[in-house]
Design goal:
The chain is mostly helical. It has eight helices and no strands. The chain is globular, with a radius of gyration of 20 Å.
Amino acid sequence: MHLYAIVFYFFFFVLGLAVGSFLNVVIYRFPREYSLVSPSSACTSCGHHLSVGDLFPLFSYLFLRGKCRYCGAKVSPRYFLVELITGIFFVIISLFEGFNLEAAAFLFLLCLLLVISLIDIEFRRIPNMLLLIGLGVGVILKLIDSFIHGNWEAWGDAGLGMLIGGGIMLLIFIVGRGGMGAGDFKLMLMIGFFVGIQGVILVIFLGFIMGGVYAVAMLLLKRLNRKAPVPFGPFLSLAVLVDIFWGAQIWTWYLKMSGLVE
């Protein structure tokens, strides 16, 4: 890899770290209905406002050894991990997808799903506003892509992805009588718009497999009882990650194994 490429991807990684820092603000403030812009960031334990030196992504956490500079309280490793994961997203998406609107759409989707997953884990709910923002941004990006490349047929795939994904989840929600949350149904509508027909089928399939394995493992370890709710958003989000990077290969393998293609 040439030096300029290394510098370019390093820039993308740093940009991802900065975005991850903002995602941490959204994860903490949005479900609590706090403003995202004011007041400035503060320690959640002592309330002391943080200085610029406390807010460098990754490095501040490492330098301060995961503690508040002012009161010594432990800082959740989630802040470090969200920044690191987002930086990795920026680099990997640019490597896998290049630099185009499709890459931007996938990158936005992964960042949004990271936020949604962590909120779902902590609060057991998925904010409707985040889903509306996600769908709105998806529509704008697809409109721009259609005007630039004339790719208007992609709207049919996106629409069917919404109908199939949302329809399956709605059916499960109705039949399960509360076993699946309404937020999961609405989440699949948004995911379906981004990933289309093939993607949404794979996402639902993988999401249920991963969610089922997790639930069984927690039951066997007695970390979960049968009536305890399990947030499903994170598993759907992980399935989207798999679909983005390996969905085409999985479908090719499946079609060959089933004898539908040579």
